[in-house]
Amino acid sequence: MKILVLNAGSSSQKSSLYNVEGNTLPQQHPEPIWEGNIDWTASNDFGTLKVKANGIKQEMKLDPNKRVEGVSKMLETLTQGETQILDQLSEIDIVGHRVVHGGSDYSEAIQITPEVKQVIHRLITLAPSHNPAHLEGIEAIEQVLPDVPQVAVFDTAFHSKMPLSSAVYPIPYQWFEKGIRRYGFHGTSHKYCAQRAAQLLGKPLESLQLITCHLGNGCSLAAIREGISVDTTMGFTPLEGLMMGTRSGSIDPAILIYLMRNHHFDADQLDILLNKESGIKGIVGSSGDMRYVLEQIEKGDEQAKLAFEMFIHHLKTSIGSMLGNLTRLDALVFSAGIGEHSAPVREATCAGFEFLGLKIDVEKDAKSPIDTDIATEDSPVRVLIIHTEEDWAIASECWQILKQN
């Protein structure tokens, strides 16, 4: 079965093609046989397409104002040139799309119909940077593969079973009835990490209680009890929760009222301030990248040191809030760019939970081993580093749907 995955971001389009043989999914994810990645913001004048297949890497320029056409050009590399791995696109059996926001409409992956597209379009107001890009990808596939089924895998779906006590905001209930609620995000990653943690621990997922930490430029936690997300840090939008690369995370909402009343901020200015100019970047001043922060700390930069300490403070505080929704903690899972690669972040975070008996092997942690338990042998809480595989998780959902149908 050949499964194409389109993982669209606000300024990128990451795509993979998997070839899954046999009647069961492999326990460990296979490598994609083709990868195509578009960066729409490579320069002010053009975007770039990078393709990898058959041991060959290619790069070409794209018009950033013609995104659907750009996706079509990317798909052409599957059947043309040195990166050709298919005789024709019709060999693709199914296409899966990561969709950031499914609202309260969808609790699981679903085959795309005109009605599903309408919901994704309606939810653009809740995910204006992402849902339009998902629709572009869906429409590009409709043009070149009109008869191939497409599947939407929603970032919000994994959190849809949260109890109302976690999902409802303490504002007048009528707003919950109108759709203002905590949805949560990074669900595809949190779900994959929970399933992979169960494999690594050799236990059924339904027997485990976990906290998964997706730490990248965007950061979120999930409390997972018996395979169900019972709480998460992101909410109505991906802005809530942890301090992130350029996002503030949760702050006193009265700050926004103050800025509007006393400094004449409008909605667009607040949006830019909180989403683009805050978080790590807001404290350091020039970058929201944790690697840069650690480099600057080595040079004695006090603001970089403060940014790191703030990041750890908010992370530990939020892990504590997740603990309140569990009856025990079997494993703490670190994933995504910072979670997988930053040993100082993992070490500083775990140091705050030694009272739980949690202990990490510092030497093992320093090597950032992927898909590995870095806890000491006598630690009652396991600590896992897991390389998140969103694309493979989407491909797996597609495989399940095609088999069911």
TrEMBL record:
What top-level class of enzyme does the UniProt entry assign? transferase
User: PROSITE patterns attached here?
Assistant: ACETATE_KINASE_1, ACETATE_KINASE_2
Residues annotated as binding Mg(2+): 7, 390
For this UniProt record, give its keywords in alphabetical order, as a comma-separated list. Answer: ATP-binding, Cytoplasm, Kinase, Magnesium, Metal-binding, Nucleotide-binding, Transferase
Q: Which InterPro entries match?
A: Ac/propionate_kinase (IPR004372), Aliphatic_acid_kin_short-chain (IPR000890), Aliphatic_acid_kinase_CS (IPR023865), ATPase_NBD (IPR043129)
Location comes to: Cytoplasm
Q: What is its EC number?
A: 2.7.2.1
One GO BP annotation is: acetyl-CoA biosynthetic process
Gene Ontology terms for molecular function: acetate kinase activity; ATP binding; magnesium ion binding
How many and how are cofactors bound here?
A: Mg(2+). Can also accept Mn(2+).
Q: Cite the Pfam families for this sequence.
A: Acetate_kinase
Instruction: Show the GO cellular component annotation of the record.
Output: cytoplasm
Q: Which residues bind substrate?
A: 98
This protein's assembly is summarised as: Homodimer.
Q: Which family does it belong to?
A: Belongs to the acetokinase family.
Any idea what this protein is called?
A: Acetate kinase
The species is: Limnoraphis robusta CS-951
Classification of source organism:
Bacteria, Bacillati, Cyanobacteriota, Cyanophyceae, Oscillatoriophycideae
